[in-house]
Design a protein that fits this description.
With about 350 residues, the chain is an all-alpha fold. It folds into 2 domains: about 1-140, no CATH class; about 145-345, Methane Monooxygenase Hydroxylase, Chain G, domain 1. It contains 16 helices and no strands. Helix 3 runs antiparallel to helix 6 and helix 11 (about 220-245) packs antiparallel against helix 15 (about 320-335). The radius of gyration is 30 Å and the shape is elongated.
């Protein structure tokens, strides 16, 4: 609603401003320019304004040049569109600008014969509409909130904790190969989750470009980027754990110690999410460090138990040992750098 209201008001202002320059005709190209230019982000709006102005000016120039040597006909329209596209591509305009060149050229060529001032009015209206659109966008830019930035970037982290919690609950008692295959299938869906989170984060970064209001969100964007990278790495670890359980499902048996270890790891990941959201808040950092220490202690206890239980059984180490290795990697990913040095992770 905010964006729609902003466009509507700017279009009305553009009409009034353009009408003042030539009251004898309807200045519909000025509000049209506003409608096509104003976007949710400052960067997109400025880019569209440049493309539209350049496209209209070049199109009118092409029309003026050709109107002196050819008359309106099916062939001349084809020639104008052909040359207009070539001019747009030669000027290295984007899709918006390239299309605008032949459109403006064709209209200026045909309508300009009936209304000689049409080409100049179109350029003036476009300049007025573009200028007002940019003023409105720069004065009232949209900007993502820190909470929204963090929430979307943490989607892979949240999905990993959900899958790992399901796995931990399942292997605490007797589990089956079908369960392991279901966990692996869920882990594979993380690819789509990561792609969506990265697309959202790229959009947030684009929103912050040339946006004075979004300046305060830059720390949140940087921390969200870190969370997204960590989420991608944890997704790899989660898939590896699921794959290992599928490989070892022929000899499936309850793994209560591994279950407890995964739950501790989930708690550490959730503490990392809270730490990211708080932008390194002291209390959340303390909670994260404590959660990592608890998970690390559980890892040491579990490792001692499996060494006694598995002994020299290489198959057990190659399959279920992956759970231990991937858990240690996950703890390393969510550990703050200075804490990681002290903990040896």
């Amino acid at each position: 609603m905010f964006l729609a209201a902003k466009i509507a008001i700017a279009a009305s202002v553009a009409w009034v401003a353009a009408e003042a320059t030539h009251p004898e005709s309807a200045p519909y190209f000025a509000p049209l320019a506003v409608l096509l230019i104003v976007q949710p982000t400052v960067y997109d709006s400025v880019s569209r304004a440049i493309q539209r102005v350049a496209g209209v000016v070049l199109g009118v120039v092409v029309a003026l040049g050709l109107s002196r040597v050819i008359a309106p006909s099916a062939w001349s329209i084809g020639i104008i569109i052909f040359l207009g596209l070539l001019v747009g591509w030669a000027a290295r305009l984007g899709p918006q600008g390239v299309v605008q060149v032949p459109v403006s050229a064709m209209l200026a060529f045909v309508v300009g014969r009936l209304t000689p001032s049409y080409g100049g009015q179109r350029v003036v209206d476009t300049l007025i509409g573009s200028g007002i659109a940019l003023v409105v966008v720069l004065l009232s830019p949209s900007a993502p909130t820190p909470d929204d930035i963090a929430f979307r970037a943490q989607a892979p982290l949240r999905r990993c904790t959900e899958i790992l919690r399901d796995i931990a609950t399942g292997i605490e008692t007797q589990w089956t190969k079908d369960q392991a295959l279901a966990w692996l299938e869920e882990a594979r869906t993380l690819i789509a989750t990561i792609a969506k989170a990265r697309k959202d984060h790229d959009a947030h970064q684009l929103s912050a470009r040339w946006n004075a209001r979004a300046y305060r969100e830059r720390p949140a964007l940087e921390r969200a980027r870190q969370a997204l990278v960590v989420g991608e790495r944890l997704a790899v670890n989660t898939r590896s754990i699921s794959r290992a359980l599928v490989d070892g499902s022929d000899t499936a048996r309850p793994l209560p110690s591994n279950s407890a270890l995964l739950l501790r790891s989930v708690a550490a990941i959730e503490a990392y999410e809270a730490w990211v959201t708080s932008l390194n808040g002291p209390s959340d950092r303390k909670r994260l460090v404590e959660a990592i220490k608890a998970a690390d202690d559980a890892l040491g206890t579990t490792l001692a138990l499996v060494q006694e239980r598995w002994g020299a059984d290489g198959r057990q180490w190659l399959t279920f040992g992956t759970l231990l290795a991937m858990t240690q990697r996950m703890l390393s990913e969510v550990t703050p750098p200075d804490e990681g040095v002290q903990a040896g992770l």
